[in-house]
Amino acid sequence: MQLKDFYTVNDLLVDDAVTTAQITINKDHDIFKGHFPGNPVTPGVCMMQIIKELTEEVVGKKLFMQSSSNIKFMAIINPEKTPDLEIQLNITETETGYKVKNTTRFEDTVALKLSSSYTEKQ
């Protein structure tokens, strides 16, 4: 985990087509002291890191993000109000690595959608 104690994986269900993770963001993590004091917002780059780490766990390999596209931050993830997230990953193996399509939700709200390509870390 790149950010120690930033989140906890509560459940990870790996299916043939879609992997679903239930995670909880640690609202007391130091990152929220600066992002932003009194109004914490989960940084988008941290969400992208979580997606990479979950993908690594599913495929059993260390990965390097090659590219990301169609990144859509659709709702603010405030760890004090909505720390529990559902992260869906559609992971496809390619000739050069893996492609991942992600949808992240809290309650009935879609917070993030993105597509990423990863190569195996050397």
TrEMBL record:
Any one GO molecular function term: lyase activity
Top-level taxon: Bacteria
Pfam family, one: ApeI-like
ApeI dehydratase-like domain span: 19-103
Annotated protein name in UniProt: 3-hydroxyacyl-ACP dehydratase
Organism: Pseudotamlana haliotis
Source taxonomy: Bacteria, Pseudomonadati, Bacteroidota, Flavobacteriia, Flavobacteriales
